[in-house]
Predict the structure.
Amino acid sequence: MTVVAPVTCPVCGCLCDDLELVLEGNSIVQVKKACAIGEAKFLNCQKDRLLTPLIRKNGELVQASWDEAIQRSAELLIEARYPILYGWSSTSCEAVRKGLELAEEVGGVIDNTSTVCHGPSILSIQDVGISGCTLGQIRHRADLIVYWGCDPWSAHPRHIERYTAFSEGRYRRSDWGRYVKRSYSRQLLKRVRRLTDIAYKARPLKEVASGFVPSLSTTRDRKMVVVDVRRTRTADAADYFLQVRPNGDYELLQALRLLARQENLDVDEVSGLPVRLLEEVADAMIECQLGIIFFGVGLTMSSGKNRNVDAALSLVRDLNRWTKFLILPMRGHFNVTGANVVSTWQTGYPFAVDFSKGYPFYNPGETSVVDILSRGESDAALVVASDPVSNFPREAVKNMIGNPLIVIDPLETPTSLSADVVLPSTFVGIETEGTAYRMDHVPLPLKRILTPPAGVIPDEEVLGRILDRVRSLSKDVT
Amino acid sequence: MLGEINRLRPKGVLGVPKLEVVLLTGRTIKQGVGKELGKLSNEYHTSVAICQMDSKDLDSIGIRENDNVRVTTRFGSVVLTAVESDRGPHPGVIYVPYGLWANVLTGSHTHGTGMPSFKGVPAEIEPAPREEVMGVRDLLQHYYGK
């Protein structure tokens, strides 16, 4: 048995770099310090793998040789007039670089998963600007943490523990002890309520949907505010929970902006929340020493989209008249930030880059994949380390499946099941080294811990082979 | 607004109760673990082919937890297993974790941003006692013919 430490976790944008893995031969038997999702990935990475390339023949996916599969992929990409190259957030920066080269060679559109995630945030940041920072600053200094439209407890399970309320910073203490006490008292309250229920067959104590949760201790160091449409698990740990009406974020953000500018609101309620509560939250925001808003796709996927993010970025700008306030998007996949970064330094644009004119062209809404697919303009797709068939709207999926589809992935997914060519690849960060960017734009190296299954090669190499074949085939034609 | 649209109205020939709700799709920790166990695994299926509902909404269309419901939006319709939400109260709001099932229900209009609306979609929900929740392969065959 050997222990490998520290290991960086290739799951979400937190890129936790303190994991310990216990190995037995060429398999992982125990994962320490990881969240449930990280543990599941490390322990299951060798099960149900794609081991050989597959090609669709007479409607069925059948095994093929690497040479045949690469040849078929290259032919499909050359034949296509307007191919899409999509995915890129769960692979290394090195593979993204190769992908961009391929996109330019075949004159296609290259887009990454941020297009259906924080794409609107990027548009907004380009318009308004952002007061950003690294997560280390937050860990050591932030005393007010706002999670808006995101649920790190479910999507970035160690974010609170490593970087915000429950982390032990140099200048700020962890809030964990107080949270545990509060959870016990909440459980006790529930039991009392159940007993009184039985005794009186009525509900004398009502659960409050939104509001301030009274704290047990007065010597607090950090405060946490959660704004969400549901009482998420993150909300359970917050000091203030604002349950905003679905699609009501823009209104609420603008109301807070008014309050931060010391204006009065002539209404009693905004987006289902009493103005008195908003005033209290605005006061907490103004009075803190260093505040941060982490925002999630609750803002980008609901009505307003990039305009919601405009309002959030502007709120932070307003708050900086009083105190130091920062804002960061909660990036999902482990290297979605890297996909944006590499795309930007190669082409000038972070996503939705169209090479069909022979030079990079960027116009989200026009050159973004969901729009291209909905208009039925593309005639082939290459998907790398992603599962758009599960995550795109139905109409977009229909068009993607209706045309030739090439998939590079370590596992069988609904996208690989619908593909015409499937190329098996290794897991970056487990079987292949590479670079990934954390959500705060800090690049971290990923390790090779296990030997990949025989005959399975990294994304970067697969893309390189397709690119070489495309170049040699194009040369033959000319 | 929620109070307004969250009204129960009898519909259809047999007066099957339908409820107008707002659909949210998103991540859950079980969906996160399920996807790492494999998109074709049973764990993934049971973590995403569900519809989390408020207990009052379950009562108002006369179903119990683990009964099947049909969710319909103007983009599509799919059968899911109803689950009582442990994140309530949120009457008038249903939550379906990201996945093939949720995305049958979402539209592809992006308002010029590239981003479809995956949250805050108007939907209708009704009991579907005689219908089955489809598996991945059946769903691909049924909706996309592949």
User: Anything to note?
Assistant: Chain A has two domains: 49-117+334-477, 124-329.
